[in-house]
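Table S2 (continued). Query chain:
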Amino acid sequence: MVQVDPRACKECGYCTAVCSRDVFAPAAYFNERGYKPMLAAYPERCTGCGQCFYICPDFAISIDEPDKGLGV
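Corresponding output:
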């Protein structure tokens, strides 16, 4: 599942530019640094490709591997 740290995000919009699944949307509030952070508004759409993770200049995005139920 993809997550965005709203405290670190500076609303550059790179994540929305590379995401073909429309996972991200701007927040309706400003963070303490004065930016409207991007949020993972639709994390269920994420396929875990990692493009947003690698393009984020603020290191604000994390992607957890989904539980595949393998019991490992």
